[in-house]
Task: structure prediction
Amino acid sequence: MARTLKVFLPILFIVLAIGGSFVMVQSRPAAMQKPVSLPALLVAVNTAARIPVTFMVRSQGSVSPRTETTLMSEVSGQIIDVSSAFVSGGFFKRGDILVRIDPRNYQSAVKRAKAGVAKAQTQVATESALSGYAYEDWQRLREFDQVTREASSLALRKPQLQAALAELESKEADLEMAQEDLNRTVIRAPYNGMVREKIADVGQFVNISGQLARTFAVDRAEVRLPLAQQDLQFLDITSLAAGARLPVTLTADIGGQTFTWSAQIVRSEGVFDATSRMLYVVAQIEDPYDLEGTGREPLRMGTFVTAEISGNAGGQLFAIPRHALSRGKTLWLVDDQLRIQPSDVHIVRMDEKFAYVDKGLEEGDRYAITPIDRPLPGMKVRFGESSRQLPDL
Result:
């Protein structure tokens, strides 16, 4: 009996403990449940308002001369003098003497040509006198023999006179050529410009067509600007053929400062580049080196610039910051209950900062400009003051 109690007594305690635990669990009071409210997301909003938009097309390119020349010698000889402006980076004006070549050989040629002209003039005078004497002799013979026929040209020495006149004309041409060669020993600037590279200097012997320097004109500069096909719809390129001009603003960073220059699109190159599929237009800048002294920063050749071309008017559009769009076209509107709702908008054009919208939005609508991570329709938001951002038009 005692042995049986030793076996069943622990089992009884275990059963009673389990039963008591079950009773306690069943009799405990129910836990209070409180509804969990999701926190409202803090966002910045804008109020939709239409504004007049003029589209700007952006491009970039390098400044290059409108006219560039390789100066060559038209005569041969030794360079005896050069201008102080005949250095790389030197400015010169049209008509300035840049280089002088030894003229002595050409001065001698002019003297010989003048002597030839004088000799030919003497021959013409002699033949003219002889022709006159021959005519007088013929007149006397005609009266003596009662001859009725006309005198021959040979009898009147007309061929000899014509030959002398032709020789005079040839000698005058030789003199003119010799004088031109002498004039070419002085090389003058063909335009207002700058020396890009000096090739020859004092003491150097140059032959005909020998290179002296590379120069370019400084009255105007040009920038070739590539345009993508999709940007052409915002520019009136066809009006360039009729003489119209498109305003351009050029920008460049020089020495840590940003400078701007005004320019104009003057022509289109008229063909698409076979490799890049770009159409190039040409912008011109007047007086790029500011030789007139207006005080603006010189626009040096080779400067890399960014261009903003004034394009067509787009009408009244909404300018939406690009970062406010989800998936490229969805805008999250904020309703009166401060809940967000998606709206797919129609984008007319998009630039680096803004998307220009004409549909999918109404005047006065509020929309979130803060990017929302995994937004859901009806999500509660809160915001402070509106942050209105407008493009620079």
Q: What stands out?
A: The chain has four domains: 45-54+315-382, 58-65+218-311, 69-102+185-217, 105-173.
